Amino acid sequence: MDSGNHKVVSLLRVMQPAGQGSGSGCGSKSGDGKSGCGSSAGQGDLSPAVWEKVKNHPCYSEEAHHHYARMHVAVAPACNVQCNFCNRKYDCSNESRPGVVSERLSPEQAAKKVLAVASTIPQMTVLGIAGPGDPLANPEKTFKTFELVAQSAPDIKLCLSTNGLMLPDYVDRIVALNVDHVTITINMVDPNVGAKIYPWVFYNHKRYTGVEASRILSERQLLGLEMLSARGILCKVNSVMIPGINDQHLVAVNKAVKSRGAFLHNIMPLISAPEHGTFFGLNGQRGPTAQELKLLQDSCEGEMNMMRHCRQCRADAVGLLGEDRSAEFTTEKVMAMEVNYDLASRQAYQEKVEVKRQAVVAARNAELATLAGERSDISILIAVATKGGGRINQHFGHAREFQIYEVSTAGSKFVGHRRVDNYCQGGHGEEDSLDTVVRAINDCQAVFVARIGGCPREGLKNAGIEPVDRFALEYIEQSAIAYFKEYLARVRSGELMHKLRGDADIRQGALIA
Ligand code: CLF
Ligand code: SF4
After folding, report:
1. Whose CA is nearest to atom 7 of ligand 2?
2. From atom 14 of ligand 1, which residue's Cα is the shortest distance away?
3. Ligand that lies nearest to the alpha carbon of residue 267, given by its number in the listed order
4. pLDDT greater than 90 at residue 20
5. 8 A C-beta contact, residue 468 and residue 404
6. For residue 271, what pLDDT is reported?
7. Whose CA is nearest to atom 13 of ligand 1?
8. Which of 88, 294, 327, 449 is most deeply buried (CB count within 10 A of its CB)?
9. Sorting pLDDT into bands at 50, 70 and 90, what band is 34?
10. What is the pLDDT of residues 102-116, one digit of tens each?
11. Mean pLDDT in residue range 208-228
12. Angle, helix 167-176 to helix 139-152, in steps of 10 degrees
């Protein structure tokens, strides 16, 4: 894609009103069509029943993901499809990408782990089964796990992520078990495109290849989505953006899934590096740049809610979406743990979380009100170092990801995140790491941090990115809007010339803890 034209189109997109704080992502489900859930204050025009399902689901509500955690249990090793971006053979506890796990669990082990995590992390609200293979290629293990958890931890929402091949066969069981969030990964609705992504599918005791394989997969995925929507299950569609293969085509996918009742669409970048051992990785298939991904997400956002806060989790991830606490809950540790699952204390803790969450929203709205009547075509991106809670509360050197906010006179919204190697390693800064960070947030005008040292401060300034620590420990969106007002004033006074920043990198390699 021509990068020059790309920038112009991207600017035009971001000049469009961000939509009263609605907009970016979260997600959930069918029937209610497009509605605010993303970075908006809350219920918006969702029905009370849908709001109840999404309000503390960290994937279906961008706002919730700052406060609530999810966990996955790896009970589903087998898969009935081969995707060219997947390799489940490699297992590294430092690597974060879908399909990677350190241990596979029995349903009984998984249920014990859920109780152990629930009693340690009271803001863990969702149990997802997402692999390492396909949960519906392992139906007995998957449903047995859900049954056990529903009996022992009834407040935890059950969530399922599938390639969709077997979905139509299990809709009744999903409904009966009260699994009210289902994600289907749909990367194409045209089997000719699919043939470049899926070498084979195994269906009805037979292996299919080529276009035929993708035709079967696509029909089953769309049928499953329709059936779930008709039953009132919240459906999210995940799509992997593969430049040159399905990037343009995902607009058609977006329309197809919206028309079948999907509540949220999560377009994720292809993660592709040779060391992953995937077909795409070994054959040099690149992932999208940050700007390419955002442009596609923006172009689909007019159609439906887009999720932009997905962290492409491991199949055994535990914690807030930006963190991974799975190492605290190995089978050995879990089996030795004294589990004290106490529903009342979990609820009491979550009530406190809600109070904090409302404070974040109220602060953002109050600041937003001060922008009323402002008109400008300027829109900027800000990178934020945060450990969660909606605050700027992380040292620059400790950040392993930056959250990205877009701010304009329409307000602020979360539009993505960038993984980085943390700058401080062994107590001192690494110049190579600073280069990586600069490339990852190169499209941002500023980076908000709780603290920052002298060397990285200078390095960022030289790269044209303003390091900002005066909002340390303050709320992110409130601060972003306040900064934007100052930025506009500086532009208007002539102190500053507003310039479009360049593109940025999305990390392709393994995440090193
Ligand atoms: Fe897990 Fe998926 Fe449920 Fe979330 S993850 S099964 S919907 S609880 Fe979330 Fe992780 Fe992205 Fe999935 S951030 S990979 S979208
Ligand atoms: Fe991997 Fe999921 Fe594709 Fe199966 S469906 S090959 S587990 S990405």
Report:
1. 133
2. 312
3. 1
4. no
5. no
6. 87
7. 310
8. 449
9. very low
10. 688 999 999 999 999
11. 98
12. 10
Rounded to an integer, what distance in angstroms lies between the CA atom of residue 440 and that of residue 429?
17
Of the candidates 500, 456, 450, the residue with the CA atom closest to the CA atom of residue 479: 450
- 394-452 pLDDT, tens digit per residue, is 999 999 899 999 999 999 999 999 988 777 665 555 666 888 899 999 999 999 999 99
Place of tokens 């050197």: 397
Query: Two tokens at 443?
Result: 């499209």
Residues enclosing ligand 1, CB less than 6 A?
Answer: 59, 70, 72, 126, 128, 130, 159, 161, 181, 183, 266, 310-313, 321
pLDDT at 8: 25
Place of tokens 């390095």: 459
What are 33's two structure tokens? Answer: 């069509």
> What are the DSSP E strand ranges found in 346-388?
380-384
Q: 93: which 2 tokens?
A: 């506890």
How far is 155 from 449, CA to CA, in rounded Å? Answer: 35
Q: Token pair for residue 287?
A: 């992932």
Compute how many other C-beta atoms are within 10 angstroms of the C-beta atom of residue 499: 8
Q: How far is the CA of 281 from the centre of ligand 1 (A)?
A: 23
In the reported structure, the alpha carbon of residue 120 is separated from the centroid of ligand 2 by a whole-number distance in angstroms of 31
Instruction: Take atom 8 of ligand 2 and give the residue whose Cα is closest.
Output: 86
What pLDDT shows up at residue 272?
Answer: 86
Closest atom of ligand 2 to 131 CA is 7
Question: pLDDT, tens digit, for every residue of 252-292?
Answer: 999 999 999 999 999 999 988 888 888 999 999 999 999 99
**Backbone φ and ψ of 186, nearest 5°:** -125, 110
- Tallying the residues shown for the chain, one arrives at 513
Nearest protein Cα to ligand 2, atom 3: 83
pTM over cut 0.70: yes
How, if at all, do strands 380-384 and 81-82 pair? unpaired
In this structure, which amino acid lies at residue 412? Answer: S
Identify the pLDDT of residue 98.
57
- Residue 17's pLDDT is 26
Q: Is the CB of 131 under 6 A from ligand 2?
A: yes
Distance, CA of 301 to CA of 316 (rounded, Å): 30
Residue 429: predicted pLDDT: 58
Q: Comparing C-alpha atoms, which of 307, 218, 225 is closest to residue 267? A: 307
Distance CA 213, CA 195 (A): 7
